[in-house]
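Chapter summary example.
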Amino acid sequence: MQPSPEQSPHHAYPDHWEADVVLRDGGTARIRPITTDDADRLVSFYEQVSDESKYYRFFAPYPRLSAKDVHRFTHHDYVDRVGLAVTVGGEFIATVRYDRINAQGRPASAPADEAEVAFLVQDAHQGRGVASALLEHIAAVARERGIRRFAAEVLPANNKMIKVFRDAGYTQQRSFEDGSVHLTLDLEPTAESLAVQRAREQRAEARSVQRLLAPGSVAVIGAGRTPGGVGRTVLRNLLGAGFTGRTYAVNSAFAADQATIDGVPAHRSLGEIGEPVDLAVVAVPADRVPEAVADCGEHGVQGLVVLSAGYAEWGAEGRERQRELVRQARSYGMRIIGPNAFGIINNSEAVRLNASLAPERPASGRIGLFTQSGAIGIALLSGLYRRGAGLSTFISAGNRADISGNDFLQYWFEDPDTDVALLYLESLGNPRKFTRLARRTAAVKPVVVVKGARHSGSTPPGHAVPVSRIPDATVSALMRQAGVIRVDTVTEMVDAGLLLADQPLPAGGRVAILGNSESLGLLTYDACLAEGLRPRPPVDLTTAATPQDFRDALSAALADDGCDAVVVTAIPWVGENGEAESGDGEVLATALHAAAATGSAKPVAVVHVEIGGLAEALAAATSTVAQQRPATASPAPGVPGRPAAAAPRRPGTGQDPTGRPADAPDKAADDAAPAPHAPRPVGRIPAYPAAERAVRALAEAVRYAQWRRQAAVPGKVPEFLDDTIDEPAAGTLIDTLLGQDPDPRGRPLEHDEARELLACYGITVRPTLPAPGPEEAVAAAARLGYPVALKTTAPHLRHRADLGGVRLDLDGEAALRRAYGELTDLLGKPAELRPVVQSMAPRGVDTVVRATIDPAAGAVLSFGLAGAPSELLGDTAHRLVPATDRDAAELIRSIRAAPVLFGWRGSAPVDTAALEELLLRVSRLVDDHPEVVAIALEPVVVATQGLTVLGASVRLSPPPARTDLGPRRLSNY
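The structure predicted for these 973 residues follows.
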């Protein structure tokens, strides 16, 4: 909303303060600055506030606002005087205002850094978290305007407002003066305030999803008068699923005397229903959707599932139509699934909702499934149905203009009916938030993701979000860091989901293989090795094996402390007449179920070839008891979400809890000693038609279990870094280098500038001296001391020793002059080559350390070996900033060439501790100073003792916006 002409001319209307927020009850509201055009809205709002709330605001009876009050509360300069309003349906439901004050409490301007703040919330909307959301936003505005503290006077009886301030997590002081409570809040965000903000975000967004998935009543808008069509199909599916709430059909074309359709009440508008409707499924042409949304908003509908097409997928006109749809729905406090959605399903027996185009409600189970694509959703539902898998919830969000996979991660995090979250995503609208939510959810239950459009850089249709520039391999690495199980295909997603939903997590990577086919056992053995697991020699039961033999062998494997998981292989057995028989799959399944029911909590997977009825019988659960969620986020082997103690370091072995040497490269398989085996939950046993598929799913479970154990003890930034880091000096230098009016494109630092900045964080870069001619080269070498290196710095030759642009170990003037002549004769004139001289560093392994700021994903720390082979093979590891000590250690060990650092082929191991420290220093620099948008240290020569940074480049730029650290807000349109 733009201001009128009389608004303060020297401070433009701050439209970036406008935000849509989700409130505690799951509804939405809009926060925006108050303008001079809001006088009538303010008066109307105030008239609806109770006398008690007015008394709490003004400390005296104040029945109405005077003209002077209205003028004061609607005229702001957006610097020293700011007012924000919360609106629903265009009308105010709450306001907040701050006025900058000096030490004496009088009106002031900058540099005064304190402001008096006051709130007023309409009584009907108290208890919805409105004031808490307003406090987050007004605090962010104040910080932007140079205000560091809020002062508030609150009557002692106003417990609700006192609680808002007390629970915000800011550092605060309280005193009792002149009959009121005086509160002072420091507005600098703290770990507690950020935790409070994110906890409120999670509760609100989870509640907004819950309102859609568990409505008490559903209206299908656009249910046709004749069978067929989208609306009528959804209505039929709702009835077929046995929805437990009330169902209505709405169509403006119904005859006035038509009372029912398909046995449910028929109405021409929502207003005719005469009672509240919680969820509306909109299945009308796109040009009629605004009318339907307005009807829903005016009659208190809480959420919409928009099946209608014709939006962002149709081009520019459709994108604008989609944005207007979101704006309109949010103005009424509603959230949207869609448009162009396939629908939603909730299999809870208390709801039994199938508001989708899927003709059959899938079986109930412990898997939550989110997909952007309707076609992929259909395929996944079909695949899960064939495999006997059950779902807790299913969402196909189409264009996901509003509700996205992030919202469902918030919901599934605390949903007791969901043990595994599966997501098919074609884009990540907010990668930072996705990574944060996925990490938290993965700490208590598996998150499996397939990402489509991996190489096209797809942006959510109709969304105004930064486009990520990082390659897909980096995205995959960052997902792994967050504990996400990323797979390449929807088939792999189903394979992994089945195992994770119905089997306990493995304690390690030791796999027992048993079956009645030696060949199939060997294929399984090879597949285990290929996935980094540690298979035991297959146990061949021979083709004469009976179901009882399978049961006995499986029982023995489950009881063996030397294995962590079991793969059973089965082929049709040979009958007495010598002919192969498919056998009775149900008998074999019964035997395997019986063994699993009495065995230890280890995952079991079955690989079978043409055994009739086996997969179906294995998929039939023998118990419907839900797998227990943890009381805390502490993960461990066993059932997904079941807590157990983390394995301690083995005494006297120099090994970490995974059984690896402390300095050895990380492995996918975990060598942890098995934890005491808990009683095994009895349920489905996943079956696979190929050994590779079963083993791949098992390997994902092993890696995920290992991540869970490590995540139980989070890493940290070592305190010793604080003693060697001068953050204020770096900040002052950055301000000086950027200047008063920095170029928004940023600027690269000169060599000496980069050295000075890096030195503030304890990173020493070996100096180089220019050598435009042989005489200058000799003088530089004399200054630095022999031996020296002669290097070209031309962009096309930088760090390309393979092209002859680097000459090492020049131990005297003659050698230096000879090398200089050879260099210029071979590669070109000195002006083109830009030679430099540098003193030699101790021999070691050449590595590269980089940090970059991606507009969507945030700051990313990268590590790899220097040289063309690593670049060609993409052998680079990545972690999000800020990196912990564990991240740094994993970063070094996760590249394929890591053995080179640890004594490969008899070479001496290098100083990886020094390398980890360097990574942490770079991470800290980028995290402390968002103006540092790129750092490249190349090469970093890591010797057996210490390391040397031979080259460094740094780029500064005005800091990009950090939406992940600001107040809660939904995506803007």
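To summarize the output: The longest strand covers residues 91-101.
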